[in-house]
Design a protein that fits this description.
Blueprint: E1 12-15, E2 27-30, E3 38-41, H1 46-51, H2 53-62, E4 67-71, H3 75-79, E5 87-90, E6 94-95, E7 101-102, H4 105-112, E8 117-120, H5 127-136, E9 140-143, E10 150-151, H6 160-171, H7 177-180, H8 188-198, E11 206-211, H9 222-235, E12 239-245, E13 260-264, H10 268-276, E14 280-284, H11 287-294, E15 299-303, H12 308-311, E16 318-322, H13 332-345
Parallel strand pairs: 3-4, 3-8, 4-5, 8-9, 9-10, 11-12, 11-14, 12-13, 14-15, 15-16
Antiparallel strand pairs: 1-2, 6-7
Helix pairs in contact: 2-6, 4-5, 8-10, 9-13, 10-11
């Protein structure tokens, strides 16, 4: 994947505003039409791949067939399959002796070849990232790290969707986040697998997707989920729950256990698919919450250790229930009331058509 053509020059100047706030970098004015090759780097957790998706969609749209993406193994197929990339180079990550993320920067740079523009899409820094930039020898490097030529500022309390989208808007100020925050797209095989699960229930039945699984400090007590579901099922006879998780969370132990369908152990894209086509969502801070958000599935997010303003819902209809202390401090009644609010405001799938930019990736029938 080495660049075949010689690297053209890229004209870059810095334009200072008359009243530039402290900490705001100079704004680059770059002739990106002269760029023949660009390299973007992104590698992080599963949910972070969803949060960066609008930003990568925008960058790849502005540099069609000119962008090489460096990412973790499997990320291209799972998250970025529809991006118009020039190439995709996968690299493993590990922690070095200082507990900083590391990767084979020299090997990745050799595979990518020289580039005009390097875009760091991650918010962490490490010696490997600096090595990658130095080996690529870009004319311009943009990112959140201090070693970049143009450093995009980090803003507290800003949603991560928007923070990551600051990269493309820093390069192309006319871009708008909403244009690239479309619903996820799935392969035919994934759609068929999800449809098979959905067809096991009558079409008149409405589906609540539930995701209770994450790291222990961010989990809400499973018996609390069971009691909230029991209250919902008692009042609403036409609702069932699809519990998406890696391992069986055994939420089918309440009074209405026959209406709780465990969808544990499914391939990740299939689990995403089920969430994307559910009528509502309830869950903790996780990748599934971001799927629901991108696909405009009305949802309730439970938060404690992480900031809902930065990591919660941003796009679709939602309610956040935030713990004052530990997750166990979240009252069951608050969660139940939040879900009931969703059901009253978005009682049927027809109401979801009123949600701005709602794009149904497919119909499960």
């Amino acid at each position: 994947w080495r660049a075949a053509a010689p690297r053209p020059s890229v004209t870059t100047t810095a334009i200072r505003a008359d009243k530039k706030s402290e900490g705001t970098p100079d704004i680059p004015s770059t002739r990106f039409d002269s760029v023949s090759s660009a390299v973007a780097f992104f590698a992080n957790g599963v949910g972070d791949h969803l949060l960066v998706l609008p930003a990568l969609r925008a960058v790849s749209a502005m540099l069609p067939d000119k962008l090489t993406l460096l990412c973790r193994p499997g990320a291209r197929e799972a998250f970025f399959a529809d991006l118009p990339l020039r190439a995709c180079i996968e690299t493993q990550l590990w922690y070095d002796d200082d507990r900083l993320l590391a990767f084979d920067a020299e090997g990745a740079s050799q595979a990518a070849g020289a580039c005009d523009l390097f875009i760091s899409m991650v918010q962490w820094g490490s010696p490997s990232l600096e090595t990658l930039q130095s080996h690529l020898r870009p004319a311009v490097a943009v990112g959140f790290q201090k070693h970049c030529d143009f450093v995009v500022p980090r803003v507290r309390e800003k949603h991560t969707f928007e923070q990551l989208f600051d990269i493309p808007t820093y390069l192309w100020p006319h871009l708008h986040f909403e244009r690239y925050a479309n619903a996820l797209k799935f392969s035919k095989k994934t759609r068929e697998m999800a449809a098979k699960i959905r067809r096991a229930t009558p079409r008149s039945i409405r589906v609540l997707a539930v995701h209770p699984e994450t790291s222990p400090e961010k989990m809400w007590a499973l018996p609390n989920f069971v009691r909230v579901l029991d209250r919902l099922f008692y009042r609403h006879q036409d609702i069932i729950a699809f519990v998406v998780s890696e391992r069986d969370q055994h939420l089918d132990c309440g009074r209405y256990s026959d209406r709780v369908i465990s969808c544990h152990g499914l391939p990740l894209p299939v689990a995403f698919c089920l969430v994307a086509e559910a009528d509502w969502f309830i869950g903790i801070d996780s990748c599934m919450l971001h799927v629901a958000d991108l696909c405009r599935v009305p949802g309730v997010g439970l938060f404690c250790q992480t900031n809902a303003a930065e990591w919660g819902f941003r796009i679709g209809p939602h309610r956040h229930v935030v713990a004052s202390g530990a997750m166990r401090a979240i009252p069951e009644g608050d969660v139940y009331d939040a879900v009931e609010w969703l059901l009253s405001h978005y009682p049927t799938r027809a109401h979801r058509r009123l949600i701005p930019n709602r794009e149904t990736p497919f119909a499960l029938s």
